[in-house]
Design a protein that fits this description.
Distance between the termini: 18 Å
Order of helices and strands: HHEEEEEH
Number of strands: 5
Radius of gyration: 16 Å
Strand order of the largest sheet: 1-2-3
Largest sheet: 3 strands, antiparallel
Shape: globular
Structural class: alpha+beta
Number of helices: 3
C-alpha cells in the first residue's frame, strides 16, 4: 500500500519547484530515469519508501522479451521513459524492428500486463 507524507500546499509547491530546478538541465533516459522517478515519487508526491512502490525494467513478453521502464503495481501506472530530446510524436524503431511512438509502445506493453 502506498503511504504519503502529509504536506501543506506551501510545502508541496516548494518541493515541486526544487524538483523542477534540479531536473531542468537533465534528461538522459538510460542514466537518470530510475533516480528521476524515485525522487519524483518521494519529493513531489510524498510517497514513503518509493523504492518499494515502483519496479524498474519489468519484463514483458511480446514476440520477444521487452522491458517496461517503470511500473507501480498498486496503481497500475506504467512508465515509458524517453530522453528529453526525443519527439514523443515520432515513431521510434523498436527492438523487434517495428516503429512506434512512445505512447504506442506503452499501450503495447500495457496489453501484456495482467
Amino acid at each position: 500500500m502506498i503511504q504519503l507524507e502529509k504536506l501543506t500546499m506551501t510545502q508541496k509547491n516548494l518541493k515541486i519547484k526544487e524538483f523542477i530546478n534540479f531536473w531542468k538541465d537533465k534528461g538522459y533516459e538510460k542514466g537518470e530515469s530510475q533516480t528521476f522517478w524515485l525522487k519524483f515519487l518521494e519529493k513531489v508526491l510524498g510517497v514513503k519508501n518509493a523504492e518499494q512502490v515502483i519496479s524498474f525494467e519489468r519484463p514483458v513478453m511480446l514476440d520477444h522479451t521487452s522491458f517496461i521502464d517503470g511500473y507501480i503495481s498498486d496503481t497500475h501506472v506504467l512508465v515509458e521513459q524517453k530522453s528529453k530530446d526525443v519527439d514523443l510524436r515520432a515513431k521510434i524503431k523498436q527492438s523487434d524492428g517495428s516503429f512506434l511512438t512512445p505512447l504506442e509502445q506503452a499501450i503495447r506493453y500495457a496489453k501484456e500486463v495482467p
